[in-house]
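Researcher: We're reviewing a set of sequences before deciding which ones to prioritize for further study. For each one, I'd like a predicted 3D structure that I can look through quickly. This is YrhC-like protein. If possible, include the structure in token form so it fits the rest of the review sheet.
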Amino acid sequence: MKDKVELELQRKIEDYQRFSFIFVSLSFFMFLGIIIPLEGKNNGVDSILVLGVFAMLLLACTCHFTSKRALTQLLERD
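Model: Here's the predicted structure for YrhC-like protein, in token form for your review sheet.
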């Protein structure tokens, strides 16, 4: 039973780290959409992209701290 719980915690840690990386990558590409000049782009699109970048970074931080909390739980079980 103990090994099953530890294995589940390890999988959660890996998943949250992957989610965090995906959110950071997505925010990077959205940021590129802000700084690359386009002819038909207006300020409304920039505002949406800025909000999206901050939302993705917030989700990445949340996933990172969740994975650290799970890692702490895993280390306390040992």
